[in-house]
Amino acid sequence: MSDWSRRRAMWLPGGLAAAALLPAGARAAAEAWPSRPIRMIIPFPPGGTTDLMGRLLAERLSAKLGQPVVVENRGGAGGNIGADAVAKSAPDGYTVVMCSIGTAAINYAAYGANMPYKPQDLAAVGLAVRVPNLVLASRASGLDSFEAMLKAAREAPGRLNYGTSGIGGSPHACMELVKARTGIDITHVPYRGSGPMLTELVAGRIQTAMDNIPSALNFVREGQIRALAVTSRERVKLLPDVPTLAECGLADFDATAWFGLQAAAATPAPIVAKLGAAMDEVVRSAEWAERVGAFAAQPPGLTPQGGTTPEAFAEFIAAEITRWAEVARAGNISVQ
Questions:
Q1: What are the structural domain ranges in the chain?
Q2: Which residues, listed in sequence order, are joined to residue 138 by a DSSP beta bridge?
Q3: Selection from 55, 106, 60, 57 nearest residue 83 by Cα
Q4: 133-230, which class in CATH?
Q5: Rounded CA gap, 298 and 311, in Å?
Q6: Does the keyword Magnesium apply (predicted)?
Q7: Which CATH class is domain 3-131+257-331?
Q8: Can you tell me the mean pLDDT for 303-324?
Q9: DSSP H or E segment with residue 77
């Protein structure tokens, strides 16, 4: 068997071929996995969408795998610190990262030579959820529509600011797309996660923001901040009065964040397959669709059955890295 054929066989569904290729000791370890708690690193502070979705997933994976999945928040550097910790962890399946579109795709272009890990350092396990973003405004700003925001930005270029959960994340990239499409000049104010950013927005210390819907939803519902537009192709059922950016004049605008699970690259394929299978069961369930739907999020839909696999997620990540590299170049998104 050639090296390529051997590597390809390691990813066959169920990990059966992979198990046959492993030494007896490694096969036994894979079959016994998990025999102790699994640590899920969330590379952002508590309160953001990565944290919310990660904790929902951890609870359900614990039930499927028969071992606790313990959440550990480790934020910083746009999620790179936490993701890098997993990339450099022991490849035994006991440390995973709740990755985001930022840590798994956008950051490679945004951080460039400063990225502490590479795509090949992490193994794809599965996509958990897709999430639209919201264009937001503080009540103190007086902005009550996306059109009003554009008008204010054009009347005083550079004076309006917008907050995000950090450089390189989907909110940052989405707002840079908005800027490119509209020609406005507004100043980016990055934070170490959605929680700190939303606190500042509610207090009126920043004027506008872009954020994932789950973390911002309750603030909007309670009237603490205003939702000006949604970045998805269609309106969100939970916020039916909020127009899409396409409706606001940005034809065909469609951009959503996503979150999934990755492990260290050298994790044995049978373990990745076993974890991926458990994740697929979770995300294809009606209970998962209902639970994440309460946050205006959607199940992955990477497979014909509506679920996810390590192989499908790996292909998805590769395509997203290419897509967002182009956006980063066009929007000059760079941490150099």
A1: 3-131+257-331, 133-230
A2: 225
A3: 106
A4: alpha beta
A5: 20
A6: no
A7: alpha beta
A8: 95
A9: none
Q: Give the dihedral sign, CA 99/104/110/116.
A: positive
CA atoms within 13 A on the CB side of 21: 18
Vertex 123: Cα angle to 117 and 128 (nearest 5): 110
Q: How is residue 134 written in tokens?
A: 């919201």
**pLDDT tens-digit series, residues 202-256:** 999 999 999 999 889 999 999 999 999 999 999 999 999 999 999 999 999 988 8
Q: Is the peptide bond before 34 cis (omega within 30 degrees of 0)?
A: yes
User: Can 3-131+257-331 and 133-230 be said to share one CATH topology?
Assistant: yes
C-beta separation of 121 from 90 below 8 A: no
pLDDT exceeds 80 at position 28: no
CB-based contacts of 175: which residues, under 8 Å, 6+ apart?
A: 135, 162, 164, 186, 188, 210
Q: 3-state class of 190 per DSSP?
A: strand
Q: What are phi and psi of 105, to 5 degrees?
A: -145, -65
Provide CB contacts within 8 A for 155, sequence distance 6+: none
Task: Note the pTM of the prediction, 2 decimals.
Answer: 0.82
* Rounded-to-integer distance, Cα 278 and Cα 161, Å: 42
